[in-house]
Amino acid sequence: MKKLQQITALAFLVIFLMAGCKKRDLEPNIGSLNVTIQVKYDKSGQYFNLPMEDVEVRMENLWTGRENKAVANNNGLVEFNGASAGNYNIEAIVTIPRDLFNNLTGQSRDEDVVLSGQLLNHTVNNQLNAPLELEIHVGRQGDLLIKQIYYAGSSTSNGASFRDQFLEIYNNSNDTIYADSLYVAQVMGVNSANPDLSSGYYLTSGSMVGQYDWSKSIGMVDGSNANDDYIYAKSLYRIPGSGSTYPVAPGESIVLAQTAVNQQAPYSNNTGGTIAIKDPSLTIDLSQADFEVFLGPYLAIPLVSDIDNPAVPDLEMLLYTGKEWILDNLGRDGYAIFKTSEDVENEFKKYPNPTIKSVTSTTALNYQIPAGLIIDAVEVQPTTAASRVAKRVLGKLDAGFTFVPGGSFSSESVIRKTAKTINGRKILMDTNNSTQDFDYFTKANPKAFY
Question: In whole angstroms, what is the distance from residue 19 CA to residue 34 CA?
Answer without folding.
Answer: 29
